[in-house]
Structures are given as structure tokens and as C-alpha cells.
TrEMBL record, chain A:
PANTHER family the UniProt entry points to: AMINO ACID IMPORT ATP-BINDING PROTEIN, METHIONINE IMPORT ATP-BINDING PROTEIN METN 2
GO biological process, one term: amino acid transport
Sections of the chain in a coiled coil: none
One of the record's GO molecular function terms: ATP binding
Record Pfam families: ABC_tran, NIL
Protein name according to UniProt: Methionine ABC transporter ATP-binding protein
Alphabetical list of PROSITE patterns matching this protein: ABC_TRANSPORTER_1 (PS00211), ABC_TRANSPORTER_2 (PS50893)
Originating species: Aquibacillus koreensis
ABC transporter domain segment(s): 2-241
Keyword field contains Membrane: yes
Keywords: Amino-acid transport, ATP-binding, Cell membrane, Membrane, Nucleotide-binding, Translocase, Transport
InterPro entries to which the protein is assigned, alphabetical: AAA+_ATPase, ABC_transporter-like_ATP-bd, ABC_transporter-like_CS, ACT-like_dom_sf, MetN_ABC, MetN_ABC_transporter-like, NIL_domain, P-loop_NTPase
UniProtKB/TrEMBL annotation, chain B:
Keywords: Cell membrane, Membrane, Transmembrane, Transmembrane helix, Transport
ABC transmembrane type-1 domain boundaries: 18-212
Predominant cellular place of this UniProt entry's protein: membrane
Location relative to the cell: Cell membrane
GO cellular component terms, A-Z: plasma membrane
Similarity remark: Belongs to the binding-protein-dependent transport system permease family. CysTW subfamily.
InterPro entries recorded: AA_ABC_Transporter_Permease, MetI-like, MetI-like_sf
Protein name (Swiss-Prot/TrEMBL): ABC transporter permease
Transmembrane domains' residue ranges: 22-45, 57-84, 96-113, 193-215
């Protein structure tokens, strides 16, 4: 659907040259939510702005649905842009227009007749959940409502792609979740391809199918969110995973706790993917004559299932304990015995 | 009673002068609005990073604006006499003051327009570009509406400066309250005439300020 080939953007200022995007290659599938994560200055915004050519690339190509965006002349580019929606961190609404008029703006640009425009705006207002606020001005809306207007506006011309540059970074956590949910719904119901830029791992975790990690203008790692989460290779990725999982979580004070147990075994259970941990723990406790208590752990949900680690104490007969561990090992959960009492 | 307080004031003549001041101010304000917006847009669009980025053009427009702003109005009006004669076929009366008034205040307003446009959120212009808007659409549907309160308050400031200029234009016999105060008041030592003219000019200034503030606050939805 979207192919990025050898894409580069070099900014030359008087004092130095910056390789904001450096020989980037990506393939984005139709209908997926593709996340790009990186720290500030990694080149994420430059990258997303190259996609609709708000910046012209120094080198390389952006191909959307077989059309080479980078080769388009001015007029053709304008028409292509009408098929690429974009939402922004600071919403970028026209304060002089009401909600309704803001959403109608891209339709005016596309030359949609007045009557059709009105109907389409009504649909969009319903879609993003702003019924009743049609005639409010942006200054009368909350951040979350402003972003809903931004989303409705971006969807007005039925785009093929939606570009989101830090779309939730100016919002509080709850509002962020409601906007992410709206994006998931749109992705599902309209089959819209979404490219989303963020510096927050939890955003990636909650809504993305695949993710690319950017550093210094390059993609250092990419793949299914769960894979990248569970096997982070680069230093940056590990840092981002820690954002969600907490730092060195397995070891905080675990040593002291372990020493306190006189019987049983302390085991670490690593969850990756399609297993539900509650069901596993309770079924083990039912099947075998063991007591299981959870000492520590952190499980996080991605769209492809859970990921994380639990540290549990399994107590009972040695034989039963071993059977229980063998059973767990036969599931996709990895087991690691860290301490025998 | 009025004629006792102000024995030298001829009411009929005073009304004519007041009308002339209004006439000069309003007509030149319209001209200033048109040329000022054009100059301001040119300055803004040709600036670095602008939609029509063009160093040479920007330099030329900026130079013209700066030169005309630097010339004191009283000198400008004298310098423009031949041009006025050519354009208006007369160098006397309120009509003859119009070219100088417009040329004197359009560059001033142009700068205010440029400042107002620069205050428009870059992100909003970018959003319009991302939607595939033409430059014309960006100008008429984004830049001008989004800067409207500043454009109107700038126009108010300009209008008040213009009222002052119309008084100065009295030196070429433009008519209006300034002219009236000078020839009928100052030169004939009739202080009451000067006083009444001053009060009328202050009232006119207040009217413009009031209307301007009212429109500005009505427009501002931020
Ligand atoms: N217009 C520009 N001129 C010069 N340098 C720029 C410009 N835009 C971005 N940069 C530089 O490019 C790099 C990447 O910026 P950006 O894409 O905004 O990063 P991110 O969105 O990941 O924070 C930064 O070093 C930034 O300073
Ligand atoms: Mg950015």
C-alpha cells in the first residue's frame, strides 16, 4: 500500500547539515495501524511530513497505492493530498470557524457542493461523537474534542491513509485512551490505513499492529508490536519497552523475598502472545496439588496478546511441583526456576 | 447660546468641514485597506519560508514600504502635488488630498497587516496545505479570516492616524476640520473656532476607536 524507498531529508543550515531522515525503507500494509516511535529529534515528524510532501525529500520515493508521490507536479500533488488525511499534536483548527465549518473546510477545498457537504459533515460529527457541539468554536472545546474535530476533518474526503503526528501527546491519559479507541474504530470500520508517530510506547502498545523504532533518522528495528516488545534488540527499543514494563522490574527486592521461603520453588513465567495468564494459573492450581502465589509481575496487553513476566511461588509436594512446571512449560509460556527452597 | 459662547463659529461652514473630514478619512481608509492588504500579503508571502518565497521581490516591496513610511506626511503631500494634479485634475479640495492620504498610510497599514499575518498559526496554514488547498484558498479562507481581529484593530489605528493626516492636508487647502481650524481659527485669532474643531476631531477619533474595538471583539472567537 505504502512503499518508502531510500527516503532521505537533509536540512542544510548555515552552521551544519542535519540528516533528519536518512535512507529510510518501509513497507506499510493496507488497513494496518503502523506506529513509528522515537525520541524527540529522531526525525519522526520529518518522516511523516515527507509522506504528504509538506517537506520535499532530498532523495528517495514515497509510493502510495502505486502512485509516486515524490514525482507529482504541484496540481496533481494537491489532488493526492486530498486523499491523505492528517492530524496534529496541536490540532491546528481554524479558530475563526465553528466545529461544523472546520470539518467542512476540506470539502470546500475539494469542491464538494453545499448540500452534499452538509450531509457529509453531519455524518462525520456523528462518527467522532461530537453531536450537540456542531456550532461551538474550537476555543469552547476540550483538547479531546478538538482532536475529534481534527479527526473528522481529516476523514472528510474519504482518505486512503491517515497520518497522525503525536496526535495524543497534548492530551491527558484518559482523553488519550478515548482518542486511541476512536482511531481503532475508524481503522476497523473504514479499513483505513493509519500511520502514527509517537514518543510514547503505551500508544504503540494499545493500537498498533506493527511498529518501527526510529533513531537519528533511521529505522533501527521494526516488526509486529509483540515481537518488538518481547525481543527488543537495540538499546533504544529496550528503553521504550521499559517505559511500559518498568525498569529491572524482576529484581526489585526480589532477593529478600526469595530468602524468606522455606519450601517450594520460585519460578519466573514469561508470557508472550495469545495466552491469558489468569486461566493458566488457576488451571495449574486445579490440576495439581500445589499452591501458587504471585510474588511480583507485570503483564501488559498488546493487540496481539499479553506480554510480560510473573514471578510465582509454587508450593507443595516436590513431585506435584515438577509436574506443574512441566505442564506450564508445555504451554507457550516460558518457565524459569530461579530458586529452590 | 452656542453663538454667544463661540461667536466666531459659522455653523454651516463647520458642518461642511466636518463632512469633508469624514469624507477624506473614509475614502482614503478604503484605499488604504486595499493597498495595505496587498502590501502586507506581498511582504508576508514573499518572506523566507513563505508561500511565494522570493528574496528580490520581498526586498523591493519592503524598501518601498520603508521609504514611504519614512517620509513625513507634510513633505509627502507636497512632493505628490504633480502626481495629484495628474491623477485628480486638481490640487485643491478634499479629493486632492486622497492620493497623499492613501500613499501615506497604506505602507503603514501594510506593515500592520504583515504583522497580523505572521501571527496566524503556522500549523493551521500547514493543515490547509495538507488538505490540498490552493494558495488562493489559503489566503482567502485561512490567512485573512484567521487574522481578522488584528486586521481590524490595525485598521482602527490607521484610521485614527488618517484623521490626523487629513488635518495636516489642510496646508494644500484640502478642506476639513484641520483646514478650518487653521484658516478660520488660528490665522484670525479666533480661539473658539480652534477649540470647537479640536473637540469635533476628538469626537470623530472616539467614534472610530469605538466602532473598531466593537468589531474586533465581535470577531475574536479565540
Ligand atoms: N525545517 C528544519 N530546518 C532545519 N532542521 C530541521 C528542520 N526540521 C527539523 N529539523 C531537524 O531535523 C531533526 C529531526 O526533527 P523532527 O523530524 O522534528 O524530529 P521528531 O519529530 O522525531 O522530534 C532535528 O534534529 C531537527 O532539529
Ligand atoms: Mg515531532
Amino acid at each position: 500500500m505504502i512503499t518508502i524507498k531510500n527516503l532521505s531529508k537533509i536540512y542544510r543550515t548555515k552552521s551544519n547539515t542535519i540528516n533528519a531522515v536518512n535512507d529510510l525503507n518501509l513497507e506499510i500494509e493496507k488497513g494496518e495501524i503502523f506506529g513509528v516511535i522515537g525520541y524527540s529529534g529522531a526525525g519522526k515528524s520529518t518522516f511523516i511530513r515527507l509522506i504528504n510532501r509538506l517537506e520535499d525529500p532530498t532523495e528517495g520515493q514515497v509510493i502510495i497505492d502505486g502512485e509516486d508521490i515524490t514525482a507529482l507536479k504541484k496540481n496533481k500533488l494537491r489532488l493526492s493530498r486530498q486523499e491523505i488525511g492528517m492530524i496534529f499534536q496541536h490540532f491546528n483548527l481554524l479558530w475563526s470557524r465553528t466545529v461544523r465549518e472546520n470539518i467542512a473546510f476540506p470539502l470546500e477545498i475539494a469542491g464538494v457542493p453545499k448540500q452534499t457537504r452538509r450531509e457529509r459533515v453531519d455524518e462525520l460529527i456523528k462518527l467522532v461523537g461530537l453531536t450537540g457541539r456542531e456550532n461551538a468554536y474550537p476555543s469552547e472545546l476540550s483538547g479531546g474534542q478538538k482532536q475529534r474535530v481534527g479527526i473528522a476533518r481529516a476523514l472528510a474526503n474519504d482518505p486512503k491513509v491517515l497520518l497522525c503526528d503525536e496526535a495524543t501527546s497534548a492530551l491527558d491519559p484518559e482523553t488519550t485512551d478515548s482518542i486511541l479507541k476512536l482511531l481503532i474504530d475508524i481503522n476497523k470500520n473504514l479499513g483505513l490505513t493509519i500511520i502514527l508517530i509517537t514518543h510514547e510506547m503505551h500508544v504503540i502498545r494499545k493500537i498498533c499492529h506493527r511498529v518501527a523504532v526510529m533513531e537519528a533518522g533511521q529505522v533501527v528495528e521494526q516488526g509486529e508490536v509483540l515481537d518488538v516488545f518481547s525481543h527488543p534488540k537495540s538499546q533504544v527499543t529496550k528503553k521504550f519497552v521499559e517505559q511500559v514494563m518498568g525498569e529491572n522490574q524482576q529484581d526489585d527486592g526480589l532477593g529478600d523475598v526469595i530468602e524468606g521461603f522455606a519450601t517450594g520453588k520460585i519460578t519466573k513465567l514469561h508470557f508472550v502472545g495469545e495466552v491469558t495468564n489468569q486461566a493458566l494459573i488457576s488451571s495449574v492450581a486445579k490440576k495439581y496439588q500445589v499452591d501458587i502465589s504471585i510474588l511480583q509481575g507485570k503483564i501488559t496487553q498488546t493487540r496481539k496478546g499479553a506480554y510480560g513476566t510473573l514471578v510465582v511461588h509454587i508450593d507443595g509436594d516436590d513431585e506435584e511441583i515438577n509436574k506443574a512446571i512441566d505442564y506450564i512449560a508445555s504451554t507457550p509460556v516460558e518457565v524459569e526456576v530461579v530458586h529452590h527452597a | 447660546m452656542l453663538s454667544e459662547l463661540f461667536p466666531n463659529v459659522q455653523m454651516d461652514d463647520l458642518w461642511v468641514a466636518t463632512y469633508e473630514t469624514f469624507y477624506m478619512t473614509l475614502i482614503s481608509l478604503v484605499g488604504t485597506l486595499i493597498f495595505g492588504i496587498l502590501l502586507g500579503l506581498l511582504l508576508y508571502l514573499t518572506a523566507r519560508g513563505g508561500l511565494w518565497e522570493n528574496k528580490t521581490l520581498h526586498f523591493i516591496v519592503a524598501a518601498i514600504v520603508n521609504i514611504f513610511r519614512a517620509i513625513p506626511f507634510i513633505i509627502l503631500i507636497l512632493l505628490l502635488i504633480p502626481f495629484t494634479d495628474f491623477l485628480m485634475d486638481t490640487i485643491r479640495g478634499p479629493k486632492a488630498a486622497l492620493p497623499a492620504l492613501i500613499i501615506g498610510s497604506a505602507p503603514f497599514y501594510g506593515r500592520l497587516v504583515e504583522i497580523a499575518l505572521r501571527e496566524v498559526d503556522k500549523g493551521v496554514v500547514e493543515a490547509a496545505k495538507a488538505m490540498g488547498a490552493k494558495t488562493r484558498t489559503i489566503i482567502f479562507k485561512v490567512l485573512l479570516p484567521e487574522s481578522m481581529p488584528a486586521l481590524v484593530s490595525g485598521l482602527t489605528v490607521t484610521a485614527i492616524a488618517l484623521i490626523g493626516y487629513t488635518a495636516v492636508a489642510g496646508v494644500i487647502g484640502a478642506g476639513g476640520l484641520g483646514d478650518f481650524a487653521y484658516f478660520y481659527g488660528f490665522q484670525r485669532r479666533a480661539t473658539d473656532v480652534v477649540f470647537v474643531c479640536t473637540v469635533l476631531i476628538v469626537i470623530i477619533v472616539f467614534i472610530f476607536q469605538f466602532i473598531g474595538d466593537l468589531i474586533t471583539s465581535k470577531l475574536d472567537k479565540r
